Amino acid sequence: MKALKGSDVKKIDLLCQEKYKIPTLLLMEHSGLKVVEEIQHYPGHTKFTVIVGKGNNGGDGLVVARLLHLKGFSVKVFLTEENLQGDAKINLEIVKSLPIPLFRDLPSLDRILEETDVIIDGLFGVGFKGTIGGIAKEIVQKINSSGKYVLCIDIPSGLAGDGPMENREIVKGDKTVTLGLPKENLLLSKGRVYAGELVVKDIGIPPELINQYKTDTYWLTEDIVKKLLPKRSQDSHKGSYGTGIIVGGSKGMSGAVILAAHAALRAGIGLLYTLVDRELVNTIETSSYESITLEMEEDLEKFKPILVNYLAKAQSLLIGPGFSTNNREELFIYILNNFPGKIIIDGDGLNLLAKIQDYSLIRENHILTPHPKEMSRIIGLTVEEILKDSINIVREYSKKYRCTIVLKGSTTCIGTKNGEVFLNTTGNNGLATGGSGDVLGGIILGLLAQGLSVEEGAQLGVYLHGLAADIIAEEKGYFSLLPRDLPEALALAFKKLY
Ligand SMILES: NC(=O)C1=CN([C@@H]2O[C@H](COP(=O)(O)OP(=O)(O)OC[C@H]3O[C@@H](n4cnc5c(N)ncnc54)[C@H](O)[C@@H]3O)[C@@H](O)[C@H]2O)[C@@H](O)CC1
Ligand SMILES: Nc1ncnc2c1ncn2[C@@H]1O[C@H](COP(=O)(O)OP(=O)(O)O)[C@@H](O)[C@H]1O
Ligand SMILES: [K+]
Questions:
Q1: Complex ipTM
Q2: Could you tell me if 49 and 231 are in contact, meaning their C-beta atoms sit under 8 angstroms apart?
Q3: Start and end of every YjeF C-terminal domain (predicted)?
């Protein structure tokens, strides 16, 4: 599904009017209807307060107030400004002609909120810019301290639709009904905290317009990833599903390779090699039956001719899980320069990259899979700076390095060399255990071996990894989920998509 920037909303409004002759007043009516439709899911809530700001978000709020009143609910409107314009003004006049109580003085707000079941936030929409101050700031504070159920129209007031999310007063919603298409920041980890449950509602924008409208950010939804599934056929053999190599592991960190190996195998790979230090060979052998274990030699010069043969076997390579960064530089550089296939650089592979600081090693068929701290080591911004504006930062660096970047988190941002960003929201806090990232690397490795491009493998892999965790959590909850559970649950995740 496409995700919009604040500026896209205005452009889409204009296209609706000019190309499809749909007046914005109709879109506003539709928006109000869809918000009310969502409110009706909550029986027992009969008293509503709508907070109305001076823009079109306030106009949507006024439609909601009218429709709730017509349905017989008790509705109060708190107006921040008398002087509304355009469609919002028309809706204010309608509300004024009905017996809906209107309030304007701030001191009355505490009492009104006290008496309400649900607060509907129509203070600011995507037209919000800069910082929040004055009366608006006080209103947001009152909403947030009310303890009442808060439903945000389009976006929580104070949250920017796209771009950097500043630390300031923002409405904390229980639910956000976003209109037409989701706005970029609603899908990021930080924005999701304010949005609460996110519901996307169709407001009558013609599908032709949406299909033709170009965006460079997408929400990874089932319809997108389904198309990326590798094909399997009855008439096939292990050679049909590709070969991959995992280069990783070190003393005390053999588990990372085992997790990645199980994941690659459950992702459908035909043949899997692991390349590890001599002291790990036995451990890997006894834990991963289906993979073939290759032994790394300490003297790189002597090892090179053997290594070249190993590398020639595979289409995809994962380097980094549990690899350690001690004395690995030369081997790392050699592999990056001599493996022509698709490479996933994860964990200590990324730390080596940050240590070596030679980003010319990165090529188009490489995927970097950093968590925010690893990203910070590579690009030199702080974790906070990265999380505040992840979409634009991932876009900038995946274009700059001309590769695919998977910035992991509760929302994972995938940037491609062409500047597209895909946002993934499958997955849950059960994944917040060391080892989950190793499983992700393995899944992507398996998909790349089966012929997916780096862009496709990253999208499908990240989606499946989260979906596997969601499938487990549905039955068993979040606390006890372990990375080792994920490879097995992948089977159900694939089945859900096929
Ligand atoms: N195509 C769509 O998606 C549609 C969107 N509509 C609604 O329209 C909204 C956007 O409307 P607008 O562009 O009027 O914008 P908003 O309703 O977000 O309001 C912005 C208003 O607040 C003021 N403002 C901005 N930043 C401020 C700040 N920091 N402090 C104080 N005041 C500030 C602006 O000057 C403007 O008057 C959407 O979020 C949505 O709710 C619907 O009405 C219909 C169709
Ligand atoms: N709260 C969460 N919600 C969804 N996904 C999460 C959450 N926490 C972690 N993850 C996912 O788990 C994985 C963790 O990877 P990483 O940080 O590299 O850890 P590891 O040390 O296990 O390799 C990533 O894919 C990330 O997106
Ligand atoms: K709002």
A1: 0.91
A2: no
A3: 221-497
Please give the angle made by the CA atoms of 240, 243 and 246, to the nearest 5 degrees.
Answer: 160
- Residue 338's identity, in one-letter code, is N
List residues bridging with 198 in a β-sheet.
176
49-79 pLDDT, tens per residue?
999 999 999 999 999 999 999 999 999 999 9
Which residue, 171, 121, 112, is CA-closest to 141? 171
Q: Which domains are seen in the chain, by residue range?
A: 6-214 (3.40.50.10260), 224-497 (3.40.1190.20)
The verdict on the CB of residue 204 being under 6 Å from ligand 1 is no
For residue 479, which amino acid is it? F
**Distance from the alpha carbon of residue 153 to the mean position of ligand 1, in angstroms:** 11
Nearest atom of ligand 2 to the alpha carbon of 440: 25
Whole-model pTM?
A: 0.96
- At 343, which helix (H) or strand (E)? strand 342-345
- Classify burial at 350, counting beta carbons within 10 Å of its beta carbon; exposed 0-12, middle 13-18, buried 19 or more: buried
Give me the amino acid identity at 266: R
Residue 214: count of CB within 10 angstroms of its CB: 6
